[in-house]
Amino acid sequence: MRLCFLVEEQYRHDGMPLEVIHQLRAWDHQVDVLWPGRSLIRISEAIQAGSHDAWVLKTVSGGPGLTLLEAAASVGLTTVNDVRAIRGVRDKALAAVIARSKGLPVPVTYAAARPEEFAEIPEAEFPLVVKPADGSSGRAVRLVATPDRLLAPVEPGGPDGPAGGLLIAQPYVPNSGTDLKVYSVAGELYATERCSPLHPAHAVRERQVPLTPEVARITAEIGDVFGLDLYGVDILLGPDGPVIVDINDFPSFRQVPDAVARVSAAVLDLARHGTRGRVESVREVPLREASVREAAPVAPAPPFTVPPLPRPARPAASIGGGR
């Protein structure tokens, strides 16, 4: 098969997707790589109907890669994930509205251009978790204890005004300081636990953990609602049960057993048979049963010589998303 990966600067040394690219080439598939943001791209030639079996995006929120992926979809090319699904989760304000409208457990969400505007929220709803609507990797996420702390200095480059884009705020969900990150690899679900970025002093060893039926059901339903095939979900176990705090397309899949082989095989399967791409916000989507079994071993084709790519640093980069 012939595939095209869009990889932005932030991920040029990241294990996901560079190791997947190497694996697919070793399995005798042709993989072209475009680097939006640091190279000239002849889009009139690169994006043509029939040029590739599928395009795959690993990019930051708001980066130029998403536009290129949408251009590929516009000429009929398959995209992984479906490009409409990616747009639906990249904007955290939009994702919160879609998820809540489908009955998924998402906190009440407020949006504003400036942090001081959140002072209108009743003080009883504080502390708040404030973050950029287009953020990723937990950057510029902060816990605001009281309204008078809304104007406290944020990290350099943080969203502290109109230039930072839209902000969202959600009431803080009391929790143990441990987050669940659940990954879906084309229907196969894997759960890991890690330290919450809001509680860095709480030492937690990142590891794979058992997946409860309730969390599996919620994660599978997210895929159905948004039309995602490769995604991750950040979940808190609050006093009233699991709460969704973030959704990421094509995350790092850390702690997933044989992640490179599994994700590579999933990309090939989606390229052959198409992505789900079900983003009908007005239609109820029937919930399928989540699969939590071990995926079947993947048998690679004989390797062959490939052009050099930057090798990812060890360990792999941190999980995308945040609160």
Could you please describe the fold and organization of this structure?
- The chain is α+β, with helices and mostly antiparallel strands and 323 residues long.
- It is built from 7 helices and 13 strands.
- It has a 5-stranded antiparallel β-sheet.
Number of helices: 7
Q: Return the string of H and E elements.
A: EHEHEHEHHEEEEEEEHEEH
Structural class: alpha+beta
End-to-end CA span: 38 Å
Strand residue content: 15-25%
Main sheet attributes: strand count, strand direction, barrel closure: 5 strands, antiparallel
Shape: globular
Which value, in Å, is the CA radius of gyration? 20 Å
Number-wise, the strands total 13
Low-confidence stretches: 157-163, 278-323
> Helical content, roughly?
10-25%
Biggest sheet strand line-up: 11-10-9-12-13
Could you tell me the mean pLDDT?
Answer: 83
